[in-house]
UniProtKB/TrEMBL annotation, chains A, B:
Domain ATP-grasp: 497-533
Family stated for the protein in its record: In the N-terminal section; belongs to the acetate CoA ligase alpha subunit family.
Protein name (database record): ATP-grasp domain-containing protein
Keyword Cytoplasm: no
Single Gene Ontology MF annotation: ATP binding
Length: 706, 706
């Protein structure tokens, strides 16, 4: 995979098919950029209408080029693309970028043409970026295979360590331009367009292995291949390359818009969100955050803990920052007492507890900022710093003094990430960037940056724990019984629980009775009181139909209720009677939980857990992961729930058997993963979780089949 | 009140005590600014060390000034302030700004001096701003009584309609400077410092009545007088002047920092938050949002509904904006079909459903943006618009064309607020500001702006409804029985419920029994089964002590349980036995709710509602208001709860008597308001809410006294 993409990202020879001498045209821009930025490989313009372009020989067709070609750019009208692509194959071109639009994004005809490109690419091992894409560039190779107008300016491009993959060319161009205003550069920029062949996951794989890239930034609308994307997330985590991602299409309206924009299916956003968290991908919510965090990951050292020191010239902003630091899951430990005394001796009116308020005196005492920072950071009690300097950035003298102090601190405490906050004009912004400091003009965004660096630390720990935890997989067989039901739409409670029970998941004591006599026998063997439930695979919600009868205490009652339940089912249209389930009546103190499985069309089996009953829906208190999960991750899921306070013994009340619940979740998650294609949806609801270490029992279950 | 503050905000004569010819000194800056910006009234420098400053006669003391003085600025060392203030009083100066620090913010001595100032100000009807304050300015009067360095620049100040009150000078200066970068101006800026006399509420009152101010922006750390602040919020709402407020001190650490910064008490942030919502004050969370929203309220027309049209040059950004519009409670209706057809006829590749994606073609077809906007807005289906133009702002030609289109649209649709989004350089920013368009560089912030304008619309409706609703107040007497208990710390359930019952709030059928015989009599008159509860004012949590016994079915059981409960209480140290409560056992289907009262030290009685039991604590699902509230507002409270889904009949299940619950909440809120000083905390928990229209009953209650 990697070698194939090398021809795209690091070509030594490029043919531009549809090349133009007009630098404003789509076929003219790549040549202009390649020449302007000094591409070191060979360039071959192709266009039958010209013999020479920019002093270079222009070829009639790709076949006429007297050399091997790593990358061909196709900048032609839609109707010429397929023909030209076939020529590229014939010429043994290794990879192709297709700028041309008019494919799957425009309807059925275009879709067919695109499918042909996909099939040909696969067959002939040629890699294709696009069609309908803005192209790509690779800064270190001075390789600019794009027609984006963002490179028209004469200004030099800032260098950068961020590799940027975007499913939208316009979005990518906007981000690129905004980043340039902040002097933030990219190692690579690639717009994947219609993704007939190369998709976002492929580009991530390339960037993970690229030395010039230390952070991967992604704009995503959706993916067709969830598993491939997850594998690349895992790879990035292994190689310690953080991914910052902005995914759109969260709301129904947004999802609709995304579907019509990409012309492809877009899965549930909450599943994407789960996947990102589970595999340590940082999800940004706004463009500002996207750039801020990508830049911070590229520039700042990693945090070792969550303790922040705030240095401020405004008490008010210090308070606001304190609030936001806490809200973002960071801590703000008080300055050690001896440091406080020392600082008070320098300037008595200062705030010295953290936030550290040097007051406006910072403008009259040039060493004040450095004195404060040094004393505080030297204590070893802090993992990060925010320095709020008001509008110092607008006053060159004031800025110079402070920047010098900050540079000293950066040298002295290279492992402590520090974000500088000040209002700036463009000159100041440039100066600060060149000093290597991470700058933001808004204090809240600075907190968000440290919060992201802290999340990175936590997800790194988390991923390490997860991989250490992988050995717990339980051996599972795939049972035939399971498959034989697959013609039906759903299984009854009895069948569903037989299956989970087969996989060592504890269920209520119960027997299926097909006659009143059998029912009485079962009731006596289980022991009174019992519960009777009418079984029919067509009736998914038994309670609503009166098919659950609690607290049955005698043989006669059992017989009567059996007949009653059978009648109810027989009176339902198209419902078949599968018998009556005789079940123990649970009276032990317990709490009802829900564990479920849902098959996502993109990412496969997801596992969910929450409080049983209506609370999961009312309070949306549910946690989700891609299955399977280890008991450790299951515990993490349970602890994410607000309801976990109840399980753990709220305010000194009863504690419930969380460990057994977590074992159940993990075991069940392996079951559903193994039956990937068979199960559409499973509800174990309720699961009775008993006190102390008394275990769990599945009291009801429902399996819907694919 | 208003006339007194006029001397401060609109003085015709200003004395500067401690005036200096050095423009960098605290006593020099106000003179510099007043002269530079052309103050039209009289200026009197006062300083015994000079005879002439800036060609003006300088007076030895304030007493030597040969004219009446509206405003005296005191820019002297702390130890001279009190003496000078007394001189000002003698001279009949109407108002004073005290720049000098060293008062309550620095400890006990300073606090005493400040208290003297407060007392003198009150006695002599002289108004005081400060001490420890940066001063104020009034743009339209060219009156600059401040030593802030923000006015040092020679640039002209942008004009503005925002009146800005800040409890922090440094915070205020920062906001002022940031706003100036965006060409946003202020009608007034006032920093209230230590608030010995004039506080934020006073300034709001002045600004509400000021013609030049259309929006009031506030930075707040806390207030000593909650009722005064509420009254000013109400006044602003009546006069339709929106307030945008940034309050800090949310987290415990932030609150600590705020207390040490202001030297005064800071109440619970959640109560402040409630007050802001209840009285229509928009709370901003970040400095960017604070400025964005204040500017939008000053510049944009009010929204008539929540329907937004998104115009974009990037499909991706369009999707992101769609998500964010929905997340912010706005709607995004699809473009009418005939408009879609029309737009497709102009440009077939466009997205025409909303978001409206003109694509990059907008750069090649100069009328495209206007064609799209006109067709869509003319449909009458939209209340607001966002126009995302990528980085057009960086290309002068492109910007000029688009700005012209937007200006046309603004003329044609003056009632539709429109936010323009594009990356800008400083020149473009200036140009756009001068055109009168509201601009933001970040699309997410643009959505937040429209969301704020929409909130303003909703809170306006809401406040109108509230005032229309004020007639429902129930006449209440203040009962003596209530007062007689006030020596105790808490009342028993029986006493508490007697009181609420006296105020027509329905409670369970119950009688207090002092002997086993009485208990049996009561049980028989109520009817079996009954509940027995042991009463002791020292035991607040009966269940934990085993003092609640359910489902008692016979005379003998009643006697036995009576004696058992009495023994439990007698065995508790320092607990007095107040009898046993015999109560009906409620078996009717019902849901348990919680209604409570908490006295906030700043704002007084607050009323809370939530689900009964532990859910209120586990899920933090509670809504709060300042008491009293009408049944209408009570309903709004209930509907804010996630649990309201259960009350209203979740998924077709039973509906409960919400109206009776709302009547109870309202009635109870008037009870607690009337007993303002007596009650510290009240829990009605649980309240049984019955099905359909079967009413409510308070099943347990606890009153803690102040």
């Amino acid at each position: 995979m990697r070698n194939e993409l090398k021809s795209l990202f690091e070509p030594e020879s490029i043919a531009i098919i549809g090349c133009s001498p007009d630098k404003k045209k789509i076929g003219g821009r790549p040549l202009d950029y390649l020449l302007k930025y000094g591409f070191l490989g060979s360039i071959f313009p192709v266009n039958p209408n010209y013999e020479i372009i920019e002093d270079m020989q222009c070829y009639e067709t790709i076949m006429h080029v007297p050399s091997e070609i790593d990358l061909a750019i196709i900048a032609l009208p839609q109707k010429l693309v397929l023909h030209t692509f076939l020529a590229c194959i014939k010429k043994n071109v290794k990879s192709v970028v297709i700028f041309s639009a008019g494919f799957s994004e425009l309807g059925e005809d275009g879709k067919k043409d695109q499918e042909q490109i996909t099939a040909l690419a696969k067959k002939h091992h040629i890699r294709v970026l696009g069609p309908n894409c803005l192209g790509l560039f690779n800064s270190s190779k001075r390789m600019y295979a794009t027609f984006s107008t963002i490179l028209e300016n004469e200004e030099p491009l800032p260098k950068g360590k961020i590799g940027f993959v975007s499913q939208s060319g316009a979005f990518g161009s906007h981000v690129f331009t905004l980043a340039r205003q902040h002097h933030i550069g990219f190692s690579h920029f690639v717009a994947t367009g219609n993704e007939s062949d190369i998709d976002v996951a492929d580009c991530i794989e390339y960037l993970v292995h690229d030395d010039k890239t230390s952070v991967i930034a992604c704009y995503l609308e959706g993916t067709k291949d969830g598993k491939k994307l997850i594998n690349m997330f895992k790879l990035a985590a292994q190689k310690k390359k953080p991914i910052v991602l902005l995914k759109v299409g969260k709301s129904d309206v947004g999802m609709q818009a995304a579907m019509s924009h990409t012309g492809s299916m877009v899965g549930s956003d909450s599943v994407y969100d789960t996947i990102f968290k589970q595999y340590g991908v940082y999800r940004a919510e706004t463009i500002d955050e996207f750039i801020d965090v990508a830049n911070a990951f590229a520039q700042l050292p990693r945090m070792k803990g969550d303790r922040v020191a705030i240095f401020t010239v405004s008490g008010g902003v210090g308070i606001m920052l304190s609030d936001q630091v806490i809200e973002n899951g960071l801590t703000l430990p008080e300055t050690p007492k001896e440091v406080q005394r020392h600082l008070k001796s320098i300037i008595p009116i200062a705030g010295v507890k953290n936030p550290l308020d040097t007051t406006a005196q910072v403008s009259y005492m040039p060493t004040l900022l450095e004195d404060f920072m040094k004393a505080v950071l030297e204590s070893g009690q802090y993992d990060a710093a925010i320095v709020f300097l008001g509008f110092s950035g607008l006053k060159p003298d004031s800025l110079a003094t402070k920047l010098t102090s900050l540079m000293h601190m950066k040298q002295q405490f290279p492992d402590i990430p520090c974000v500088m906050v000040t209002l700036c004009n463009p000159e100041a912004k440039k100066l600060i960037h060149e000093s290597g400091m991470v700058l933001n003009e808004d204090p809240t965004r600075a907190v968000k940056i440290l919060s992201a660096v802290n999340e990175l630390r936590k997800s790194k720990n988390h991923l390490e724990e997860m991989s250490a935890d992988e050995g717990v997989r339980v051996p599972l067989d795939r049972i035939n019984q399971f498959i034989s039901y697959s013609s039906k739409k759903a299984l009854t409670e009895f069948q569903s629980k037989q299956i989970v029970s087969h996989y060592k998941i504890p269920i209520t004591v119960e027997q299926l009775a097909l006659s009143p006599t059998e029912a009485v026998e079962s009731a006596n063997s289980i022991g009174y009181p019992v519960v009777l439930k009418g079984m029919s695979p067509q009736i998914l919600h038994k309670t609503e139909k009166g098919l659950v009868q609690l607290n049955i205490n005698s043989d006669q009652e059992v017989k009567d209720v059996f007949n009653h339940l059978k009648t109810i089912i027989q009176n339902e249209e198209e419902a078949t009677f599968d018998g009556v389930l005789i079940q123990e009546m649970i009276n032990d103190h317990s709490i009802e939980m829900y564990v479920g499985a849902k098959r996502d069309p993109i990412f496969g089996q997801m596992i969910l857990v929450g409080l049983g009953g209506i609370f999961i829906e009312v309070f949306k208190d549910v946690s989700m992961r891609k299955a399977p999960v280890s008991p450790k991750v299951a515990k993490e899921m349970v602890e994410e729930l607000k309801a976990s306070q109840i399980l753990k013994g709220f305010r000194g009340k009863t504690q419930y058997d969380v460990d057994s619940l977590c074992n159940l979740i993990s075991q069940f998650s392996f079951v559903i993963s193994m039956q990937e294609g068979v199960l559409e949806e499973v509800d174990l609801n309720p699961i009775m979780v008993f006190e102390g270490r008394k275990g769990v029992k599945v009291a009801d279950a429902l399996m819907k089949l694919s």
